[in-house]
Amino acid sequence: MAATASVQPTLVIEGLTTRFSTRGGTVIPVDGVSLSIQPGQILGLVGESGSGKSLTGYSIMGLIDAPGRIESGSIRLNGRELFGLPADDMRKIRGNRIAMIFQDPMMTLNPVLRIDTQMMEAVLAHQKVSRDAARAMCRDALERVGIASPDERLLSYPHQFSGGMRQRVAIAIALLNKPDLIICDEPTTSLDVTIQGQILYEMQKLCAETGAALIWITHDLSVIAGLADTVSVMYAGKIVESGTAKQVLEQPRHPYSHALIASAPSRNPRGQPLRQIPGMTPSLIRLPSGCAFRERCDRVSDVCRQAPPVQTGDGRTLRCFHPVGAEHAEVLP
């Protein structure tokens, strides 16, 4: 559900930069990222492994610890600045107004505590309700994500669940407090196709009914095509293209976006070898000068050794000298 332009965005990120100090040198996995998400909107954040997608989510959640740190930028949730917020204030927001669903459910679940204990703690930590009311909320949340016999399952331990069921419990926990923003880091990877479709439907329904904004981090373009309102493509820590899902998926302009979509198996002619993007993602410690994609790009020229231009228009943002469908782009000041 796309929100109207007059509504205050749920989340606005401007120039977010996260830095890690390592023995090999300095790594900047999130480099000047800017995003905006309206209430009820679903943003797909896509790219190869190592592009900075997950660390963008962790930065929003305030989960970056030493040797990493958020170096600069702005993260505003419903107009409130989160960058630099005291740890106690951030804890009140995390899990309440912002929730994150991880790829590995055991990052959410404690193996030695019963499911009801973990779920009820998530409710009682942020809401003044009775334990009976909290239990009823937990039971409803399990039903919502397709877990049968929820009263019985609340008395179980994580090891008594399959991997897919543990992930559904983690998703249910994230939904308990009806957050304003949900960040999903490939949460359906371990689920079968039927349950994946059910979860995607429930997430869309949740956003439509509650106005929650959703960031869906993934490399699976088929999921994004049926889920997202807008898409941002990351490469080597930067957003290289963003726009509506229709714009980016049907008419990609950045050579990386174009190559990523063309390499999807569904786009490959039957009987032909799968298309691939040549080369590998560069090391973030030794990024090439100028455009980080230039050593893998078939539209590269000498000018690509400079910082690529940023173009805007028609609701799309593009960072490239030679976008697909155009010969040249002028560098913005």
Describe what this molecule looks like in 3D.
By secondary structure, the chain is of the alpha/beta class. The protein has a domain at 105-176. Helix content is 29%, strand content 23%. The protein is built from ten helices and twelve strands. The chain has helices spanning 53-61, 87-93, 115-124, 131-144, 150-153, 163-175, 193-210, 221-227, 245-250, 255-262, and strands at 11-22, 25-37, 42-46, 68-77, 80-81, 98-101, 181-185, 213-218, 230-235, 238-244, 310-313, 316-319. The chain has an eight-stranded mixed β-sheet, with helices on both faces. Strands 2-1-4-5 form a four-stranded antiparallel β-sheet, with helices on one face. A hairpin with a 2-residue loop joins β1 and β2. α3 (115-124) crosses α4 and α4 packs across α6. The longest helix has 18 residues, at 193-210. The protein is globular, with a radius of gyration of 21 Å. Mean pLDDT is 89; it is low at 1-5 and 328-333.
Helix content: 25-40%
Task: Please report the total strand number as a whole number.
Answer: 12
Q: Briefly note the structural class of the backbone.
A: alpha/beta
Q: What is the global morphology?
A: globular
Alpha-carbon distance between the two ends: 35 Å
In round numbers, the mean pLDDT is 89
Query: How would you spell out the order of helices and strands?
Result: EEEHEEHEHHHHEHEHEEHHEE
Uncertain parts: 1-5, 328-333
The largest sheet, given as strand count, sense and whether it forms a barrel, is: 8 strands, mixed
Query: How many helices?
Result: 10
Strand order of the largest sheet: 6-7-8-3-9-10-12-11
